[in-house]
Write a structure and sequence with these properties.
The protein has 399 residues and is α+β, with helices and mostly antiparallel strands. Helices cover 46% and strands 11% of the residues. Helix 4 crosses helix 7, helix 6 runs antiparallel to helix 7 and helix 8 packs across helix 9. It is globular, with a radius of gyration of 23 Å.
């Protein structure tokens, strides 16, 4: 017997989705406006979803420059609640289809996990750095902007139907359900995926903000029916669903053992350099024919692990890790902004964010170079003196 969602259950699930959506956003004006009439707003949203009359509102579009120039689409807060609702219903079903070496936007499988897995693959293939070993690194050109929404819909619905009989939790504390309402989930899937994000969107800033942004990085230059907005929770989930097709092809058809992927950056580790060269063409053809994606030839490279491999902000060399030059330059560029920081707690938060990154690498000299002089420069010197012992610790991590 199929499970059918009731209005009361939907309203309770929306409450949980609202709690998830407002996390770290409590002070935002749009969240406070929603919270002022939270019960009425949630009831109205639940009624729209229940009657299948819900329509997403236009997004806001703007440009960010840190860490690199990107075009971001921010959905209305009520639509973000719906995204969290959908995520709570589906993420466990979809994530069960992923391979272990899918790293992005998954619980306990972030950047540091991805770095550790690459290091593990290298150690196994090189027999703990005793034989020559190479890493093939590949990247997809303008990934989010070239995702075919119809293909994504077909792939997602196929995976959901395949996993629909499995037991899943809904994200609600202490709640376990045999199933979710698959008809309702399919309705939300079509609604979210097929939405054209540029339709009626509001630009924040001026057109000059878009100057210098490559056409392959903008949804306004994407082909008809292509592109997912960077910034939505569901886009992160769907990006993994879409490239899971590549993961399965590489593991099952090409029989690659040492493979991993973080969003659109993926690698293969092997001691046979010629074999790595031979894999480039079939992978590029699969991406083009099955997913409509193009490999970025300028970022395709085969690295010798003895000379170092850069991945996810880390630079891996035999038996040690360093911070990549790109990440290090980004931190050095931000340090002068600490001069304007008046709040000691905010200053500590910013310093801890830098130290948290550096704690994963061999960075004693870097920490000494970058932070030791701060106690003599900044007006909160008395506060920073207390942190100096943590900055110069040889073991990882601030307090």
């Amino acid at each position: 017997m199929e499970y059918r969602l009731t209005y009361d259950t939907l309203l309770a699930d929306l409450h949980q989705a609202w709690f998830d959506a407002r996390r770290h956003k409590r002070r935002k004006s749009y969240q406070q406006r929603f919270e002022a009439r939270a019960e009425a707003n949630l009831q109205a949203l639940a009624l729209e979803l229940w009657e299948r009359s819900y329509e997403p509102r236009p997004s806001s579009c703007f440009i960010i420059t840190d860490p690199k120039k990107r075009e971001v689409f921010a959905a209305e807060f009520r639509d973000r609640i719906v995204h969290h609702l959908y995520y709570n219903y589906t993420h466990q079903m979809l994530e069960r289809t992923f391979i272990q070496d899918t790293y992005s936007c998954l619980r306990r499988r972030g950047t540091h996990y991805g770095i550790s897995r690459l290091e593990r693959h290298i150690r196994r293939e090189s027999r703990n750095y005793t034989v020559p070993c190479y890493v093939l690194k590949m990247d997809i050109k303008g990934y989010f902007m070239h995702i075919s929404r119809q293909r994504l819909l077909d792939i997602t619905l196929r995976q959901l139907q395949r996993m629909g009989g499995h037991r899943v939790t809904t994200g609600l504390p202490g709640t376990w359900r045999e199933r979710v309402d698959m008809d309702f989930v399919e309705y939300l899937t079509r609604l979210i995926i097929l939405l054209n994000p540029i339709e009626g969107c509001r630009r924040r800033g001026t057109l000059l903000d878009w100057w210098g942004l490559p056409p392959s990085k903008s949804l306004f230059c994407s082909d008809e029916g292509c592109g997912l907005p960077i910034g939505n929770l569901t886009s992160q989930l769907f990006s993994n669903v879409y490239l899971n097709e590549l993961d399965q092809y590489v593991k099952r058809t090409l029989k690659v053992r040492h493979y991993g992927r973080y969003v659109d950056d993926f690698y293969i580790v092997s001691s046979d350099r010629q074999w790595l060269h031979s894999l480039q063409r079939p992978m590029a053809e699969f991406l083009q024919s099955q997913l409509g994606l193009t490999v970025n030839a300028s970022k395709t490279v085969i690295c010798d692990v003895r000379q170092g491999v850069e991945f996810l902000g880390a630079y891996l060399k035999p038996c040690r890790r360093y911070v990549s030059t790109v990440s290090l330059n980004r931190m050095r560029k931000k340090i002068p902004t600490l001069r304007q920081t008046e709040d000691p707690e905010q200053l500590r938060s910013r310093l801890n964010s830098f130290l948290g990154i550096l704690s994963h690498y061999r960075s004693y000299r870097l920490r000494k170079e970058m932070f030791y002089g701060l106690r003599h420069v900044y007006r909160h010197g008395h506060y920073l003196q207390g942190m100096t012992k943590y900055v110069l610790k040889t073991h990882p991590g601030p307090p």
